[in-house]
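Aim 2, interim progress: modelling of the phosphoric acid mono(formamide)ester-bound target.
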Amino acid sequence: MSTFKGKDFLKLLDFSTDEILSLILLAEKLKAMKKNGITHKLCEGKNAALIFEKTSTRTRCSFEVAARDLGMGTTYLSPEASQIGKKESIADTARVLSGMFDGIEYRGFGQARAEELAKYAWVPVWNGLTNEFHPTQILADLLTLKEQFGSLNGLNFVYMGDARFNMGNSLMVGCAKTGINFTVCAPEKYFPDKKLIDTCREFASVNNSALTFTPSVDAALKGANAVYTDIWVSMGEPTEVWSERLNDLSPYQVNADVMAKAEKDAVFMHCLPSYHDLNTEVGKAVCEKFGRTELEVTDEVFESGASVVFREAENRMHTIKAVMAATLSEDDII
Ligand code: CP
Ligand code: NVA
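Predicted structure of the complex, ligand included:
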């Protein structure tokens, strides 16, 4: 029987290298089936609750489309509509939803809330983003890298910007677990938590990969196969931090000069959404206030041939489908 059956998917730290690679393999198979018009209902008749305490485009759509392809139904609980934590405890919500659904997706604030939901639920809980981790995004990123370069082991991956939040943390875990050399390029105060770094160093040493933390753009980009960034102020953070982030992180904007320091065939990656132009309310307001036209990445790089951001976005759906199928399917598919 699959080692995933009935399990939660809360963070990549909970899974072995083989398990992570097997999920990516399953996602590749499911993607190929979808592209070839081969339908299946691997989770026919099952239902998932989708709790979103923060907004979403990709993650919500991925869960809904993937569930439909798997033969499942979904119920969306919006940031406003859910009682969770406000009028009903997480523990009670977990037990109510477990009686009606076969799996629960949770996007919210602290990781502890996702872990608590999972503790009380008797159906799998899937993390759709917390402040600390975004594991389904990392599966999509790893699948994208594998498609691009053929394999993961030995690739040089550079994360530019604030690496203390969900994306920096989870990418570090994902890279260390799959033998990718992972570099954070940022001022020291934006490096991930030391305890998490120490844990990841253990995985990296088993997989013969290196973890590097440097404020030097030149040093970080040497030999880079992939350059990744995220927005400088995440959901749930106060808008007052924009000024400090712009000050600290502007030298780490991914622009053409930065990409020119990487390998010739290097890719640009971003979890999205991104502030690469003035076509968003928030991006425009911040740019107007601080006299900028683009933030964490220039429009030139975002729209360049090196950018694989929309493939990453598509791969969210295939990898989330793999997570739901692996944890719910009655068949031995993994
Ligand atoms: N990358 C990502 O999680 O996007 P959404 O916030 O739109 O779900
Ligand atoms: N760090 C971002 C990621 C969005 C997918 C946030 O939490 O808002």
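The radius of gyration is 19 Å. The beta strands are 47-52, 73-77, 103-107, 125-127, 156-160, 181-185, 211-214, 226-229, 267-270.
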